[in-house]
Amino acid sequence: MHVISVNTSSAQAMDIDAREVLSGIGKRGVAGPVEAHALGLAGDEQADLSVHGGLSKAVYAYPVEHYAFWQTVRAQAGAMGWGAALPHGFMGENLTLSGLLEAQVCVGDVLRFANCELAVSEPRFPCFKFNAVMGFKQASGLMVSSGWCGFYLAVRVPGTLAAGEAFELIHGPRDVGIAELFRSRRAAHR
After folding, report:
1. So what's the pLDDT on residue 49?
2. Stated pTM of the model
3. Residue-range domain boundaries for the chain
């Protein structure tokens, strides 16, 4: 298990359905170590703190293993060319991870890095901004139906994170899985 990319962004104005909204979803990879502190990564912003950010959602992680799916469905929707690659951070994630999927993590599990620890807190639920960035209105629905939501992390031990860095998964109580929690919340909102 390792970090493919560490991604940050400042909050930017986006035009969505003829209105201007502020969003920090446009994350892009940054070079070198990045400080992780209680409220997130240095140089990163969230626009709507009611749904992103804060102590329990300081860092958002997304598995790189799902990127091929999103590239294909975006091409099918005409939002990008066939064979074009999505840049890491495109899903709005701070950490593009390899080797750790939603079905493998539970609330309270810890990702231990060389000098930083992050605790799994909850799944991400997509919003209208995700549809806008993906370029087609069914994107949120596809995330919901696939369960490929990624997960939020709280900063348990502040430190630094860098692309290429390995980490280990330390199991917590294993009571509530991210995939199960995502499915139960999805069912409650139908």
Report:
1. 80
2. 0.95
3. 2-188
